DNA sequence: AACAACCTCAACCGCATCAGA
DNA sequence: GTCTGATGCGGTTGAGGTTGT
């Protein structure tokens, strides 16, 4: 049907990965490491773009990936983090070992967004404003930390610190307190 | 049993940022 | 300082599965 249409887009395979493709990709990454995805795709003989290979590895083939069965604790943490950070899926995923940003994003869109919408309807407009204010507050706080970090970091390396470390949610009490503000 | 409507999630796309030449 | 390719991120799509009628 489309054989005579020389679309640049049809250059690569698309769609679901086969077991064979997964195996080839994992083999090459074991040797080359998870970088230079274009090269990896070539070496593996996969007719896939580098992006596609990276995504496949990050979301499925990487070791220590947890799949399915998001626990109540994880769900609660996602809700809290989302309240705090918004749609920063990679940041949220970073706080949930073994979970990927894509999985969390999907879980949010299919499960949690509905829950949140229902809750918001119950809480009413005032609560919504509160949520927005919290989000703004968090964004401002983080931005401020970043700015301070950059400017201070230039002059005094002791002052420099990782923003992600600063926002370490492993201490849930901190998050609770922050959300109460 | 057949079909439609809905849901889930793997994968793609476009854009922004980073890093090296 | 600029260019270019690589990487990362979030939004979106669509195929396949499930549920309802």
Automatic annotation (TrEMBL):
Cross-referenced CDD domains: SANT
Pfam families: Myb_DNA-binding
Entry GO CC: nucleus
One Gene Ontology term from the biological process aspect of the record: cell differentiation
UniProt keyword list: DNA-binding, Nucleus, Repeat
Organism: Hibiscus trionum
Location(s) in or outside the cell: Nucleus
Domain HTH myb-type as annotated: residue spans: 9-61, 62-116
Molecular function GO labels: transcription cis-regulatory region binding
Domain annotation Myb-like: ranges: 9-61, 62-112
High-level lineage: Eukaryota, Viridiplantae, Streptophyta, Embryophyta, Tracheophyta
Full protein name: Myb domain protein 23, MYB DOMAIN PROTEIN 23
UniProt signal peptide: none
């Amino acid at each position: 049907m489309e054989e005579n249409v020389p679309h640049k887009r049809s250059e690569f395979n698309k769609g679901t990965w086969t077991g064979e493709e997964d195996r080839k990709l994992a083999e090459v990454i074991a040797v080359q490491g998870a970088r230079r995805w274009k090269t990896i795709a070539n070496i593996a003989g996969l007719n896939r773009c580098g992006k596609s290979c990276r995504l496949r590895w990050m979301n499925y083939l990487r070791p220590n990936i947890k799949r399915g069965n998001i626990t109540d604790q994880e769900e609660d943490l996602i809700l809290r983090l989302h309240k705090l950070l918004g749609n920063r899926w990679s940041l949220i995923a970073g706080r949930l070992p073994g979970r990927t940003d894509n999985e969390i994003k999907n879980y949010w869109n299919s499960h949690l967004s509905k829950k949140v919408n229902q809750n918001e309807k119950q809480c009413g407009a005032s609560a919504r404003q509160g949520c927005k204010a919290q989000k703004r507050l968090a964004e401002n706080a983080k931005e401020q930390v970043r700015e301070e970090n950059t400017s201070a970091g230039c002059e005094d390396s002791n002052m420099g610190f990782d923003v992600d470390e600063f926002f370490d949610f492993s201490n849930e009490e901190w998050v609770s307190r922050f959300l109460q503000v």
